[in-house]
Structure formats: structure tokens, C-alpha cells
Design goal:
352 residues, alpha+beta, seven-stranded mixed sheet, four-stranded mixed sheet, 31% strand, flat
């Protein structure tokens, strides 16, 4: 291991212990540490230890932080066990003030209704920027990271905001879990689980194509095998002098082949189906000024007020949220009780 790697590992270990409340003192070999009781239990060490990056075997009270060392592994596990929480405040020299009505008509489709803007106001709103780890499991496994942004107030997923948001020039502060309002995080996590398949569809497109191609290949081979098997069994019946009972038995087996083929096809479908698991591994709370537009929607003889949020990062309105399933939508349908719904929920409103 080179000197640069040694120094990086030592600095990582030093910062980790410092952040966990340890008292530290550097020396020629590394540093000496006095650990809080709970930290020593997590790391499986005594409360007083010496840490170095030397290659000598670990002795009592002396621990190495080389790659693969037990102490370093425990530190990494402890760091990865908690989701890092940060916050930042965005500022803009200019916020859009006109042209909202035409932008709404361009972005949204309100089924069997007409709309008119009533008012607008500058507000402060918050978005939650999540870096998520996903695992797509099928005949093979694909893992990766995806950046997702949700409006913390509405729960709407904001496409393209992750790509347009840049951390450059922004001041980040540590965020305490207590700042969340009741139910906010739970609602966003629920949105992630419900929408993750659709959100990740582009990310997993090549993986999906590969699994689909293999499924179609194996189904074709399976159908070819059973077709040939049926023909062979039919020919054997024609050539052989079987008794009536044996012919009946063989005929019943032939008749069972389509059902057996269908079961095998179902097994292949399950084998190549993709199950996606996604979990957050880092969180940034983005506070920003925005513009809230109150929009009146007239549906027949009734009307409904809808609040739309203009996002200065994406320079577009945030999608609305289906009141039936929580999906982010730009094509909006209404039931008889004026619930905002996606096309699927509009067939039978889950709330009515």
C-alpha cells in the first residue's frame, strides 16, 4: 500500500472517531484514541486504543486501519448504517412572474374540464433529494445508484430535477431527523416504493431487454421441444402395435403435453421476471423559493381549486399527485366527487 492510501485511511478513521465523540491525540505511528463506551462496544475494542496504518499484526490495544483490517471494516459498516442527512438553501436572482397560464396548458391535461389561473404568490417550499441504492433481481442481478427528487409538501416525484440540481456553490448543513413534520418522510418513502419501477424503467431498460430476450429464447426452445416430442409420440403410436389400453394411456399423455408446456412457460416467466428493491442511502433537504399558482378548474357545473408549484430549478410546474394511488401525474381525471386521479384510478375511484 502506498503512502497516500495510508494517509487517506488514517484521516478517515480519525474523522470517524472524532465525529463519534472520541478524544484523539496524534503520534508518530498514527494516533491515540479514548472512545465513548457505546463506540467501543460498536467497534469491539477497549475504550483506550492506538490506531496506526502499519503493516505489523495487530497487538493488544493497537489496531491497524489498512484495507481489510477488522477495525476499518467496522467503521465502514457503522458509517453506511446511517443515512447521511444534509440541508441547503437555494437563492435565485429572478423568479418567473408571468406566462404561467400558457405553461400550465402546455404541461397539464385536465380531462373534460377547462381551467383559469386565479392568483399566484411567492412561497418557500422544500424538496427531498434522495440518492438510492437499487437491486434488480431476475435470472441475474443488477445493482446501481439512482438520484430521485420529491416535493416534500405534496409527495410528487420531480423528473429531471436531480440532473439540473448542482451541489456546486451551495452550503450544506447537517440535518436532524427531528426537523421532519409528522408523516413527511413516511409519505416520500411510500412514493419511492410505489413509483420506483416506473422511475427506474430507463435505468433498467437494457437489463429488461436482456431478460426479455432470454425469456423469448427459452420459450421458443421449450415450444420446439414439446412440438417435436408430441410428433415423436404420435409417430410411435402409428408404427407400434400397442394394446387398446396402452394406446389410450399414451394418448392421455399426449393430451397432457399442452398443460405441461404452459406450466414450464410460467416457470420461465417467473425466472426472468424482474423484482426491484430500492432504499435511500443519502438525503439532502432542499429549501427554495418557488411560485404557487392557484388554478380554478371547471368540470361541468362544478369547479375545483388546484394549487400548482412552479419549480425554479426545473423551470416547470411540479406534477400533481393522484389522490387514489399517489402516482405523480400530468394527465388529470376527476371522479364525481372531484378527486384528482390518474387514468387507471379514474376507472374506479379508490376514494369513493
Amino acid at each position: 500500500m502506498n503512502c497516500k492510501s495510508n494517509k487517506e485511511l488514517e484521516e478517515f478513521a480519525y474523522r470517524f472517531l472524532e465525529n463519534q465523540g472520541a478524544m484523539l491525540e496524534r503520534n508518530d505511528q498514527g494516533f491515540e484514541a479514548l472512545l465513548p463506551e457505546n463506540l467501543s462496544e460498536v467497534l469491539g475494542t477497549s475504550e483506550h486504543i492506538n490506531v496506526n496504518t502499519g503493516s505489523d499484526p495487530e497487538s493488544e490495544g493497537v489496531y491497524s486501519v489498512n484495507y481489510g483490517s477488522s477495525l476499518l471494516e467496522k467503521m465502514v459498516d457503522a458509517v453506511c448504517g446511517d443515512v447521511p442527512l444534509l440541508a441547503c438553501q437555494l437563492q435565485f436572482d429572478y423568479l418567473k412572474r408571468e406566462g404561467f397560464e400558457s405553461l400550465i396548458k402546455k404541461q397539464f391535461f385536465f380531462y373534460k374540464s377547462v381551467g383559469k389561473m386565479e392568483s399566484r404568490a411567492i412561497i418557500n417550499t422544500a424538496y427531498i433529494f434522495l440518492t438510492c441504492r437499487y437491486t434488480a433481481q431476475s435470472d441475474e442481478q443488477k445493482q446501481g445508484l439512482a438520484n430521485l427528487v420529491f416535493n416534500l409538501e405534496t409527495g410528487a416525484y420531480i423528473p429531471n430535477m436531480a440532473e439540473l440540481f448542482s451541489a456546486t456553490g451551495k452550503n450544506f448543513t447537517p440535518l436532524q431527523k427531528s426537523v421532519w413534520k409528522d408523516g413527511q418522510l413516511e409519505r416520500v418513502i411510500k412514493c419511492i416504493k410505489e413509483q420506483s419501477k416506473g422511475i427506474l424503467i430507463e435505468e433498467l431498460n437494457s437489463f429488461h431487454e436482456t431478460m426479455t430476450r432470454r425469456f423469448m429464447r427459452d420459450v421458443a426452445n421449450l415450444e420446439e421441444y414439446y412440438y417435436a416430442l408430441e410428433k415423436e409420440m404420435e409417430k410411435n403410436l402409428e408404427r407400434s402395435h400397442f394394446s387398446k389400453e396402452l394406446i389410450k394411456e399414451r394418448r392421455e399423455k399426449i393430451n397432457l403435453l399442452p398443460d405441461e408446456l404452459e406450466r414450464k412457460r410460467d416457470d420461465l416467466f417467473k425466472k426472468y421476471s424482474i423484482k426491484v428493491n430500492i432504499e435511500p442511502c443519502a438525503v439532502i433537504l432542499i429549501n427554495t423559493p418557488a411560485v404557487k399558482v392557484l388554478y380554478n378548474i371547471f368540470i361541468g357545473r362544478t369547479w375545483k381549486n388546484v394549487s400548482l408549484i412552479y419549480n425554479p430549478v426545473t423551470r416547470a410546474f411540479d406534477p400533481l399527485v393522484c389522490q387514489g394511488c399517489g402516482k405523480s401525474i400530468t394527465n388529470i381525471y376527476f371522479c364525481n366527487h372531484l378527486h384528482m386521479l390518474c387514468s387507471l384510478c379514474s376507472k374506479k375511484c379508490p376514494l369513493c
